[in-house]
Amino acid sequence: MTPSGYRRLILTRHAKSAWDDPTLEDFDRPLNDRGRRSAQELGDFMASRGYEPEEVICSPARRTRETWERVAGAPLEVRPILRFEDKLFHARPQDMLDILKSATEPTVMMIGHNPGIAEFAASLPARVPLDPEFRKFPTAATLVVDFQIDDWKDVRPGDGSVMDFVRLDGR
Predict the structure, then answer these.
(1) Is the pLDDT of residue 86 over 90?
(2) Does pLDDT of 20 surpass 90?
(3) Under a CB-based contact definition with an 8 Å cutoff, are residues 108 and 57 in contact?
(4) What average pLDDT does the segment 155-170 reach?
(5) Which domain holds residue 101?
(6) Which Gene3D superfamilies does the UniProt entry name for this protein (predicted)?
(7) Domain count, the chain
């Protein structure tokens, strides 16, 4: 939970997806074994740090839905509002910002895709994490960034404070 006057974004790229079935459309690709493990680890990490989303805005693609299902399987105390947003599938950074501005809860998790999510993540904080992989935003990468605002409509790029950055698929 975030204190009054703050908003927290947990921005996650979906975990590693499978490429072994060439007949599947990109939208329908599931997670592979490593991705399923990473998504579960992400849920455990979030629970251990108290990162409890009150609202989840997720791309409807199979791999993003499966990422959320694995994260939600961790011992999170809050059961968030869950919204699937068609525009998050391969969204541009501006689209992601517009979607974020429609959020209603103080702590929001967005689950999306590259290449847009990497650029969006880099635009949010005043100072980006020093991690050399941050700008690539690999699969299962998660940025936790706080904003000193009362409403998501007021969020602006460059005004966030990084609270955490973790990447679990980059092994």
Answers:
(1) yes
(2) no
(3) yes
(4) 92
(5) 7-16+26-131+143-166
(6) Phosphoglycerate mutase-like
(7) 1
